[in-house]
Amino acid sequence: MDQKTKTFVKPEDFLKIQIRKQQLQQRLKQKSKTTASNHQENDLSNNNVFDRKKRPNPFARDTEQNQKKSREDSLIQVDDTIFELIHNTTSKPTANLEAPILEVLNEYEKNIIGIVQENTKEEPPQIEILKFLPVDWSIKRCIRILSKTIVTPSTLKSSVEASGLTGFVRCLDIKNTSSGLDISSSARFHQNLMYWQSPHLPWLNLVQRNSSNNNPFKLNENEVDSLYKDWMNSFKNLFNLLRARQCPYFYVLANNYNILFRAAGIGGRAEMHALLTPTSKGFRQMLNDEEIEFTQPLKKSGKKSLTPNNSIEGTDENNEEEEVDEMAFLEELGINKTDIKFKENIKEKQRELEDDHGDVSTALIEGADCQTFFNFLLNAKSTLPKVGKLAGIPPTLLAPVAFLGGTLRRQNMKSIHTLTTLLSELKDNYNLTMSNYLNTIAFTKVSKELINDLDTSQTFADNVFGVENLSDCGIDMEVLKTMCSVKSEAINITERLQYCRKLGGFTHF
To answer: Is residue 399 assigned to a domain?
Structure first.
């Protein structure tokens, strides 16, 4: 027997043979799958010849129009003969079986219809254009100006800074006076960023006295006494400037209240006056004890605004009738009159407490009572706070003109009325966004209410004399005319304004 000789196979060669076998098996399986799928596709293609979609030709023209036509044609089915008839046939006019109703209108009815149509036409909203920025007596926290044109560079030249400082301290109109100072927009911009303040402590924010950034600290008795004496001298000097009409206005900012003193002629008032906000029942009682007469201008207007359709008179009458009926009912029950009066006093106190610490509680003090109120602030113990973060620090005085003991300060933005006139000279559009100090918004509300109550025909002459008497107060004449104006448009709360070059004025946005 022939014996077949067997050769020895190495492990590496054996593994290669096994890998080749597996690869061959996988190839055979893939070929079988592809042939089966091709057979199935051929069968489907033969069965659904009409269902196949034609491949779009990218080089063909008007492909979009052809697609639209194909879509419209596909909506109409061949077998649906009803829709084909509807699509192909044109609508024929049918005879109207009902007799037409003839409406005969006379000339009077036609005129009425024409008047109604004219009244129903919607008129386009009229844009209120303000030629000059209205006066807002509230203190601004910050102001943002968006303009394409740069008013002033980030760093000022020494001559520009000196001219702006000199113009503010001397109350000069750099542009219209031959003073030899720099009249560029940067110098005038720098001039309107300054104000006078007393007292001034660099590490404290004495304008927003309730700010969280103020850290509490204690002062010695000698320090408190020296600060208060210096403040009293500054307050007296500033009030004397107001009486002499050398200062148009100044602010007194305390922890619990804010005061705006204004000279005679401002806001159409014939005498100097003070606006105090907010007030409480206890503070008003102190004024009554000192025989200081005051009024609350927003008390009536605030009640009217709460009732729709100006029905305040009817509601007051109804309340009085209800109180009378309640009184009669209590008397019938045999309750003593003293108990009834005690109940009435409690109701009156509750009504007074509702208006405390709000805009409605703003008090107006005029004439000789303003002088008495000034003396009351100098001698009152409550003027100097003894508790809180700013204990021992007197109220803050802010003024646009120099006074004794005042510190010259500069902020990011001040005197916005003059700044807007400066920006309007650039002949470019810009937007103004302002943030008001909420506790001082009542000053503007009261000023507007007082102007609405004035008789403009009688106060026009007083307005002219007021401007002339305050001509040496150091304020720009255009701004001074707006402050002394008796028109309601001259005072408004300004938060967002836009200056349009084409319209030549300001608009709200």
So the answer is: no
Cα 186 from chain centroid (whole Å):
28
Establish how many alpha carbons lie within 13 A of residue 249's alpha carbon, considering only the half-sphere containing its beta carbon.
Answer: 23
The answer to whether residue 319 is domain-embedded is yes
Residues (pLDDT < 70) of the chain are: 1-9, 32-128, 149-154, 300-337, 339-345, 347-353, 412-428, 455-462, 509
Q: Which two tokens stand for residue 151?
A: 């008013």
**Amino acid found at 103:** E
Domain-embedded: residue 341: yes
Element (DSSP H or E) covering residue 364: strand 363-366
Structure tokens that stand for 420 in this block: 């807007």
Query: Model confidence over 100-144: pLDDT tens digits?
Result: 444 444 555 556 556 555 555 555 556 667 777 888 999 988 888
Query: DSSP letters of 311-329?
Result: -HHHHHHHHHHHHHHHHHH
- Give the separation between CA 246 and CA 252, rounded to whole angstroms: 18
Cα–Cα nearest to 486, from 470, 465, 462 = 462
Q: Give the count of domains, the chain.
A: 1
Q: Which residue has the tokens 């404290």?
A: 204
HSE toward the beta carbon, residue 425, CA cutoff 13 A: 12
In a domain, 340, yes or no: yes
Domain encompassing residue 330: 300-354
- Quick one: tokens of 247? 């200062």
Specify the pLDDT at position 102. 42
Residue pLDDT, tens place only, 369-427: 999 999 999 999 889 988 888 889 999 999 999 999 999 998 765 545 555 566 666 55
